[in-house]
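Hi F.,

I've been meaning to write this up properly since the lab meeting, where we talked about keeping a consistent format for the predictions we share between groups. The idea is simple: the sequence comes first, exactly as it goes in, then the structure tokens exactly as they come out, then a line or two of notes. No screenshots and no reformatting. I'm using this chain as the first example so we have something concrete to point to.
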Amino acid sequence: MILQALKQYYDRKPELPRLGFEEKEIPYIIVLDREGRPASLNQTYEGSGKARRAKRYLVPQAVKKTSGIASNLLWENPEYALGVKIKGKKARIAEQHEFFKKRIADLGDLKDDGLAAVKKFLAEKDKASLLEPFGETWKQLLEEGGNLTFQLAGETGIVLDSPLIKDAIRSALSEEGQEKSICLVTGEREPMERLHSSIKGVWGAQSSGANILSFNLDAFNSYGKAQGANAPVGKSSAFAYTTALNHLLDKDSKQRIQVGDASTVFWSEKTTEFEQKLADFFGEPPKDDPDRNTRAVESLFRSAETGAFSEGEGNTRFYVLGLAPNASRISVRFWIVDTVSGMAGKIRQHFEDLRIAHGQKGKDSFSLFRLLVSTASQGKAENIPPNLAGDTMRSILAGLPYPATLLQAAIRRIIAEHDISHVRAALIKACLNRSIRYSNSNKEKEITVNLDPSSTNIGYRLGRLFAVLEKIQEEANPGINATIRDRFYGAASGAPVTVFGNLMRLKNHHLSKLENAGRRINFEKMIGEILSGVDDFPPHLILADQGRFAIGYYHQKQEFYIKKLDKSE
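Output, unedited:
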């Protein structure tokens, strides 16, 4: 199903390279005159810093390189293309260069001026001396070892743009006598692909690429078949799905997001507006447009009113594929198939679950990265617990409860840092409400966006009480450096009976320091209202109630802030 969907995507994208070709960044171009003499050595880099990129060219598809010698056609690194030493041994480099020349010779005697110039140049024994006059550019080429190709002086394109050369490459691909089998993707009988092209762009996988479908050991083979024959995929289908997936995973792609170790790509059965917007819902907004995420989420909620994703393209199939590195292979973390309207509804629900009261500068939505990094030690992406990103993404897009480890991680960070931030409170609320919704329990009501005085949950009430006691302490001791939250939050939220007795006695001392008698009475009434129906402080709170404790504390603090704001206004 995955390969079929990728092939369908390839078939509807005419701008993608056709069979036998791929787009490749080629940083260096050797310009030759018609006698094969180098006229110039050009760099194709554009931009600077992290944005520095080489120009892309349509070139013959890269060969799979293992321990043997295999060369690309008319484009390669300097060792293969020029026979100059960079890292390898001289004897091996000589073999590589001969193989590079042989591949060009295999094209036959084509009447092409550019190809003739390349052959004349390659016939030179000391090509390095011919390129040394190009000074700094030649030195950079040797230092980088970047790919290069050739161009005929006076022409605008590279030698590989020649129609004669392209036709020769296509005819070589369609030669008879290749082993045929029933393709698992199309169901048609066609030449089988023995080695599938590598998939690049998956975070954490090998930089040279890894395989999503491969058989490289005898233990993986069956019935005496070798490599691709164990799962026969036609050459055209294998090229289609690998080209489509590499296109989706490209660093410039707008149809991929990276959260933790999960590289996630998405596409629809036919062109839709939704497939271009999904990355904006979850991705981290660029620095020059920090509100992009917020605008995308707002448009998503408006679409529920306007029916933008429920009519027309709403019934179009939508695919989401999550990939993660696994040694020399790529593992499928999750695969979700839905309709555009179904997916839009699940994403809306995710952001609805996250909504919680906040200050004037707070936002109603967060990128998935911000949610996950709030659970990580020191707020660093590399400390996000393993598998959490992929599991969370799958829960959102499949409309399932969030992973239990997400709630645990958020609560652990709060206890460790004594910081119940907006993003952590929103995350805990979302986790708890989804758990309630999918437990089919009518006994428990969902947590509200704002303070809920009617809630009888002991964790929520004690969280509110803790916030009131802290507020009393702050007003009794203006400018205090450390409050009861810094000293007692972990114990209060985990084992209330061990600390609340002392905190209630300490509260009396703090109230006595307040000069405003009306303020003292208001605090006493507030505490009485919170503790009504509470017989005793429990010895411990389960994880879910620790989460409600955090929400109760957060809600009560927001209530104090709102009242202070109203008073100042």
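Notes:
Residues 235 and 435 are 46 Å apart (CA to CA).
The first helix runs from residue 2 to 11.

If this format works for you, I'll send the rest the same way.

G.
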